[in-house]
Design goal:
Blueprint: H1 2-31, E1 35-40, E2 45-48, H2 50-56, H3 60-63, H4 77-88, E3 94-102, E4 108-117, E5 126-133, H5 135-157, E6 161-166, E7 171-174, H6 177-182, H7 186-189, H8 203-214, E8 220-228, E9 234-243, E10 252-259, H9 261-283, E11 287-291, E12 298-301, H10 303-309, H11 313-316, H12 330-342, E13 350-357, E14 363-375, E15 378-387, H13 389-435, H14 441-464, E16 475-477, H15 479-490, E17 496-501, E18 509-511, H16 513-529, E19 535-546, E20 557-566, H17 573-576, H18 594-604, E21 608-614, E22 618-626, E23 648-652, H19 656-668, E24 672-676, H20 679-691, E25 698-702, H21 711-721, E26 727-731, E27 749-752, H22 757-768
Parallel strand pairs: 17-19, 23-24, 23-25, 25-26, 26-27
Antiparallel strand pairs: 1-2, 1-5, 3-4, 4-5, 6-7, 6-10, 8-9, 9-10, 11-12, 11-15, 13-14, 14-15, 16-18, 19-20, 20-22, 21-22
Helix pairs in contact: 13-14, 13-19, 15-16, 16-18, 20-21
């Protein structure tokens, strides 16, 4: 009896335990968040957990008994059915799948599910499905995949170089852009040490920056260096290092680099260009101003600009460019400034002449070149002012020379005719004196007439200095006594006296003694007229060495400088530029030829003349004459040689008056004289004399014979006939180069018209003795 009770107790307990387990299992199934569904072998839904209702919106009664595959998305149905069939064929098999299911409201949810074969259950043969809603996860993964694809496309196509470098320096990843700049394909570099391509001079700094970024999570740093490309050339990269914080695959640094070789080259070129510009700007001898193109205010100026205007830079900055000029020019300067801004695109430099105003009020003539340039990408108004004071002076001297040359053509012709007349007059006066028998008042009248003729000679001498091509008849001259004699003669009867400061010895010069005497006479007379109340004229002569830096229109060398200084009324500045012009004078009794004559005399002697003057403070004329390398001529001693002589003289001149007067005077002195009106007749007479064995001892040959054979051609023929012929050139027109270089043309001497009997006689005596 007791055995039966135990059996019942065990059976009751076992059933109770089964019910308990089933109750616990059901509670578990119905409360999990995952979906539990039991399907029959044909796909019929046998059971759905409450969580399924929360997901798909269907109550159990609405889905139990229906086929589960009608809720699967058509695109996912084939793979879901295939997986279901494979699991169903193998008892105890399990499989994972993913598909989209339609909810009651028509929307789709993505489920990830695990299928388990329900072996041979007594109640059902089918599959239990444990599913989880992964819709949000799949959407996130899709977005992530899309982002990763976009990111990769971005990395693969950016122009910058993207590199990933491991902690040991090996390259883990290289973007395709590396090939465009360095010629390497990415796969050629991956696995290699990136730093082996770094320039040795840049390597230490780059390694230090790499290590610094690597040891600090999240750190970044910027660096720059040279890298070798596949061809062996060096490219400059600018890169940013960033630490790869907690990367699952690699511990290292990502480098975003950019090739800046061209930029650095351009920057270096720009820097060198700016350095060259600054060097040219600072070192230019011309004044340079940089101004704002909108307002015209000066931004900068070079040292030459400060020197030109005598104004420091800080005072120039901020000043409008038109205030560099006198008030009278501001309007023009504003107009030119506006015009340059309008034409800034034409790329041309626009020169114009202007006047700059120095701080002391002095006006400086300048040539201005203006242009708009770019400095650091900013437009700047550029002006270069060149001091053209010397050029203006040279232009004025050239203009003055041109005026003198024009006047010289007229003056030379007048002087020639006038000198012929004076020659006849002076010869006749000399002949009259030789005739004797004159005493008292008649003799005084004769002497006055000779003096008047000599003064007229001085006037023609002034005219001759204007003659084009008129060269001085030079010889070595000692200036000391010549200066004193000429100055004293100019001051005869004046209340002004001279003080001389002439050192010994003074270098000699190669000069026309008469012209230099005329020069000193003119300058002294000018100084005398500047002091109507009397005073002292200082005449200084000194030896000087002229250098190129002296800014004189002369070649470097030795010169004698003669200065004539007065303390008179001075010359107004407005007249200073005109005082050497022919016929310009401010004196009522002046001819306007004195200073013009002086200017031309100095020019013809290869020198220069300058003037400095201020109203009320006097005037200084400075003359530079080239010094001679020859020794000074010895001083004349003893009395003048006798005028009388012997010999046969042929006088050749187209003026009958000169032939008669000169011939008569020479006969009185003891010479035999024959006369010819032109060169052809002279040749005939000379040949006849040779045939008769009574040759002429000298020929006095006029160079200019209108309408006949001239003196130079006739002399050439005479020398062909008789190489020993002694011909003296005579002319009243100094434009013939024979007068200055007579020896080159076969002449033994020259004598200028008008000549006195003493000059003629001494010349003949000297030539006949040759």
């Amino acid at each position: 009896m007791s055995g039966k009770r135990n059996t019942r107790d065990v059976t009751a307990r076992s059933g109770s335990e089964e019910r308990l387990r089933a109750s616990a299992f059901r509670a578990l199934i119905e409360n999990v968040s995952d979906i539990v569904v039991v399907l029959a072998a044909d796909g019929e839904i046998l059971y759905q957990s409450p969580s399924a209702e929360r997901l798909n919106g269907y109550e159990p009664g609405e889905v139990v008994g229906r086929n589960a595959f009608e809720y699967i998305h058509p695109d996912d149905l084939p793979k879901a059915a295939r997986a279901f069939s494979e699991i169903l064929q193998t008892p105890g098999a399990m499989g994972r799948e993913e598909a989209r299911f339609q909810r009651k409201d028509g929307t789709w949810r993505t489920l990830e599910w695990v299928m388990t074969n329900l072996r041979e259950q007594p109640q059902v043969r089918g599959i239990v499905i444990n599913a989880r809603d992964v819709t949000e996860r799949k959407e996130a993964e899709g977005k992530l995949q899309k982002n990763e694809a976009s990111f990769r496309a971005l990395i693969e196509n950016v122009s910058d170089i993207i590199s990933v470098v491991a902690a040991d320096g090996s390259i883990v990843y290289e973007s395709p852009s590396i090939e465009r700049f360095f010629g390497f394909k990415p796969e050629e570099l991956v696995g290699r040490k990136g730093f082996e391509y770094v320039h040795p001079e840049d390597l230490p700094g780059m390694l230090e920056k790499f290590a610094e970024v690597l040891r600090t999570p999240g750190a970044s740093g910027r660096t720059e260096g040279r890298f070798r490309d596949k061809e062996g050339s060096w490219r400059i990269l600018e890169g940013v290092y960033r630490n790869l914080v907690d990367h699952p695959d690699v511990r290292g640094v990502v480098i975003n680099a950019r090739d800046i070789t061209e930029r650095r080259t351009a920057e270096d070129t720009l820097r060198e260009s700016e350095e060259r510009f600054r060097a040219l700007f600072e070192g230019s001898l011309d004044a340079i101003f940089l101004a704002d193109p909108e307002s015209g205010t000066i931004l900068d100026a070079n040292p030459a600009a400060e020197d030109l205007l005598r104004i420091p830079l800080e005072e120039l900055q901020g000043r409008p460019v038109w205030r560099l000029h006198p008030t009278s020019m501001e309007g023009l300067a504003r107009e030119m400034f506006a015009r340059f801004l309008e034409d800034r695109e034409d790329g041309e430099m626009h020169p114009f002449e202007a006047v700059d105003l120095r701080c002391d009020g002095a006006e400086v003539p300048v040539e201005v070149l203006a242009h708009v340039i770019q400095i650091d990408g900013v437009p700047v108004y550029y002006m270069m002012h060149r001091d053209i004071t010397d050029r203006k002076r040279m232009e004025q001297e050239l203009l003055r020379t041109q005026k003198l040359e024009s006047l010289g053509t007229l003056a030379g012709g007048l002087a020639h005719d006038f000198n012929n007349i004076l020659t006849a007059i002076l010869a006749n006066l000399s002949l009259l004196r030789l005739c004797g028998g004159l005493e008292g008042e008649p003799l005084d009248i004769l002497a006055d007439s000779e003096k008047a003729t000599l003064r007229a000679k001085g006037l023609t001498q002034q005219l001759l200095t204007f003659a084009k091509g008129g060269a001085p008849i030079k010889k070595t001259v000692a200036l000391q006594q010549l200066i004193v004699d000429a100055a004293e003669f100019a001051l005869s009867g004046s209340s002004v006296r001279c003080e001389y400061r002439i050192p010994e010895p003074l270098w000699p010069v190669e000069a026309d003694e008469g012209q230099i005497g005329q020069l000193i006479h003119n300058l002294t007379l000018n100084a005398d007229q500047a002091m109507p109340e009397g005073g002292v004229i200082t005449i200084r002569a000194e030896n000087v060495a002229v250098a190129e830096s002296d800014r004189l229109p002369l070649a470097a060398g030795r010169f004698v400088r003669i200065s004539v200084i007065d303390s008179g009324v001075g010359i107004p500045e407005i007249h200073l530029q005109k005082i050497f012009d022919p016929f310009f004078t401010t004196k009522q009794k002046g001819s306007g030829l004195g200073l013009s004559t002086s200017f031309n005399i100095v020019k013809n002697h290869g020198g220069c003349i300058r003037v400095e003057s201020a109203v009320g403070r006097g005037t200084t004329f400075s003359v530079h004459l080239p010094a001679s390398d020859r020794p000074s001529p010895p001083a004349e001693t003893g009395r003048t040689a006798a005028l009388r002589g012997k010999g046969r003289i042929l006088v050749v001149d187209d003026e009958p008056l000169i032939r008669r007067s000169a011939g008569g005077a020479l006969r009185r002195l003891g010479y035999e004289v024959a006369a010819a009106e032109d060169g052809r007749r002279a040749i005939e007479l000379y040949e006849q004399a040779l045939k008769l064995n009574c040759p002429f001892d000298a020929v006095l040959m006029d160079l200019t014979i209108p309408g006949g054979l001239g003196g130079r051609e006739a002399t050439r023929e005479l020398l062909r006939i008789d190489p020993a012929a002694k011909v003296i050139a005579s002319s009243g027109y100094s434009n013939d180069p024979v007068m200055a270089e007579f020896g080159k043309h076969g002449f033994k001497a020259v004598i200028e018209k008008p000549y006195g009997l003493r000059d003629l006689a001494s010349t003949l005596q000297r030539v006949i003795k040759m």
